[in-house]
From TrEMBL:
GO molecular function: metal ion binding; metalloaminopeptidase activity
Listed name of the protein: Aminopeptidase P family protein
GO cellular component: cytoplasm
One family name in Pfam for this protein: Peptidase_M24
Native species: Sphingomonas crocodyli
Lineage start: Bacteria, Pseudomonadati, Pseudomonadota, Alphaproteobacteria, Sphingomonadales
Alphabetical UniProt keywords: Aminopeptidase, Hydrolase, Metal-binding, Protease
Record has Hydrolase as a keyword: yes
Residue ranges occupied by any Peptidase M24 domain in the UniProt entry: 310-521
Family per similarity comment: Belongs to the peptidase M24B family.
């Protein structure tokens, strides 16, 4: 299995042994997670693709890999086009591709623990047009040919204390019980790892970059719960924290427990629960209610304690980033820096806080043309120097026990071109438009997306990703249901307490990338004479913008005033944490524009 060609060949041989004419390979785990443990990285093992979203289909004579616009360039660098065809999402999907390419009367395999019920239904309809069949496998065929597949993490759970969550687990379960009562349901299935972590006020280290533990849960209408997790992952401190209202079982007992819910009415989330969960409940005789996981919305609406924690984490993280930006301003002009050196130095500044638990995602450290790869990850093979006359894009974040951060800054190395300044300023104007937005209660994130794109559109430009995603509280850096996007979501009404990113960008393939990202908190806005409840955003992230890339002549007086007010906050809140040359640098970096 030394090459990806060997791995593809071995999988095809395994499929032939199982009398399958194809197999679908998603990049997820049995919890429908965005980021997955090493044991679930089947797509990466098979294809070499290192992105965080994608899927593949393998047929006897052809194979295809499916990615969205964030990975258009990356997939071509990492996956051999001789063996795989590149498919763009949402222009096509695995189901649509199978409808055109599956053999007539064929048997296409899938792992029911890695797909949603909705996907299964769509794939079955698509295959029916070819007289083909979608076949659930008992065991994943990739696992059968992956000789050194890692085992799931055995790390123990840890307690997330109430003074950081702002609400006890018992209170959260009581709210879910009220929700169940309103639905006239007996139990709710929680299979999303961040929902379980939030509901039970526990965290873990089973998934890199996301502090969650591999587990399932059933929460009941009497506010008790059953938690299914490997027994050696629970110690006495966690058991005491969970209390008598939570019964702990081995993770392997989850599926039998589903089958034992005969006669019960069970709420299950069709977006977050895999098809196998629906199948087990149905076979067991439960009555199913399809409804969104009851932890999703309250988890997204941060309480006062969580907001305070976020602000502390943002200030701490902003100081670390500012130290890095100062260091970069000194070292980059000398030459000799590259992407890997820079990202390691940024990690070191965060480590120096003494409170960093992990990064919140793999740092995107993109120099020159690598900055145009939206979700780029530097490696020894792709590592580029930070050259004079180029742009450097760094998108990074930290996991702290009191909050999760995510911030992007684009830096000019040497003198930027007029085009670079124009594009950066257009992105900045869109970024400011989101930050200054005022909108009525009930507004969806998708309705705001055009505010970020309007200045790029005016020049015939755009970017192929959403403008904003939700962010958790020491949980997932990409948290739903709120988004600012016109595709792939963005239809959730924004509510006070929701945290989102604000990250428009511009990418010129083969030359440079620009992105500016802050985290923003949705807050009520008081307006004299207002006839509706109005909301706006409070910017949480604190770090200076790149003055060398701002074309002040393109800004309005209001935009200049907003930047100056923001920079004054940065100087006051971050400058107080710095000293010496770094303090002098941030004072210059945040001086007023005029």
């Amino acid at each position: 299995m030394s090459t990806y060609e060997d791995r593809l060949k071995a999988l095809r041989e395994e499929l032939a042994r199982r009398r399958l004419d194809g197999f679908v390979v998603p990049l997820t785990d049995e919890h429908m997670s965005e980021y997955v443990g090493a044991y679930a990285q089947r797509l990466a093992w098979l294809t070499g693709f290192q992105g965080s979203a994608g899927s593949a289909v393998v047929l006897p004579a052809e194979a295809a890999i499916f990615v969205d616009g964030r990975y258009t360039l990356q997939v071509r660098d990492q996956v051999d086009g001789k063996h795989w065809s590149y498919q763009s999402v949402p222009q096509t999907s695995t189901s649509e591709w199978l409808e055109k390419n599956a053999p007539d009367g064929g048997r296409i395999g899938y792992d029911p623990w890695l797909h949603t019920k909705g996907w299964v239904e769509a794939a079955k309809r698509a295959l029916a047009t070819k007289g083909a069949e979608l076949v659930a496998v008992d065991t994943n065929p990739i696992d059968a040919v992956w000789p050194d597949k890692p085992a799931p993490s055995d790390a123990r759970l840890v307690v997330q204390p109430d003074d950081l969550t702002g609400q006890s687990s018992a209170a959260k379960r009581a709210e879910i019980a009220d929700w169940l009562d309103a639905k006239r349901a007996d139990s709710a299935v929680l299979s999303a790892l961040d929902s379980i972590a939030w509901t039970f006020n526990v965290r873990g280290t089973d998934v890199e970059r996301t502090p969650v533990a591999l587990a399932y849960a059933l929460v009941h209408a009497d506010a008790t719960a059953d938690l299914y997790v490997a027994s050696d992952k629970i110690d006495d401190a966690v058991r005491q924290h969970l209390g008598n209202g939570v019964r702990v079982h081995d993770r392997a007992a989850f599926e039998p427990a589903l089958r034992a819910l005969a006669g019960k009415t069970v709420a299950v989330d069709p977006e977050r629960a895999v098809a196998a969960i629906f199948e087990s409940l149905s076979k067991g005789g439960a009555t199913l209610i399809e409804a969104r996981d009851p932890a999703v919305l309250p988890k997204a609406i941060k309480n006062a304690v969580e907001v305070a924690g976020h602000k502390s984490a943002q200030a701490r993280d902003g100081a670390a980033l500012s130290r890095f930006l100062h260091w970069l301003s000194v070292e980059a002009p000398k030459g000799g820096l590259d992407e890997l050196t820079a990202q390691a130095k940024l990690r070191a500044f965060r480590d120096e806080t003494g409170l960093l638990r992990d990064l919140s995602f793999d740092t995107i450290s993109g120099a020159g043309p690598n900055g145009a790869v939206v979700h780029y990850r530097a490696s020894e093979e792709t590592n580029r120097p930070l050259e004079r006359g180029s742009l450097y894009l760094v998108d990074s974040g930290g996991q702290y026990q009191d909050g999760t951060t995510d911030v992007t800054r684009t830096v000019a190395i040497g003198e930027p071109t007029a085009e670079m300044r124009d594009r950066y300023t257009r992105v900045l104007k869109g970024h400011i438009a989101i930050a200054r937005a005022i909108f009525p209660k009930g507004t969806r994130g998708g309705q705001l997306d055009i505010l970020a794109r309007q200045f790029l559109w005016a020049a015939g430009l755009d970017y192929a990703h959403g403008t904003g995603h939700g962010v958790g509280s020491y949980l997932s850096v990409h948290e739903g249901p709120q988004r600012i996007a016109t595709f792939g979501g963005g239809d959730e009404p924004l509510q006070a307490g929701m945290i989102l990113s604000n990250e428009p960008g511009y990418y010129k393939t083969g030359e440079y990338g620009i992105r500016i990202e802050n985290l923003i908190l949705t807050v009520p806005i008081a307006i004299d004479g207002a006839e509706k409840d109005m909301y706006g955003f409070e910017t949480l992230t604190l770090a200076p913008y790149e003055r060398a890339l701002i074309d002040v002549s393109m800004l309005t007086a209001d935009e200049i005033a907003w930047i100056n007010a923001y920079h004054a906050r940065v100087s006051a809140e971050i400058g107080s944490q710095l000293d010496g040359e770094a303090k002098a640098w941030i004072e210059a970096a945040t001086a007023e524009l005029n």
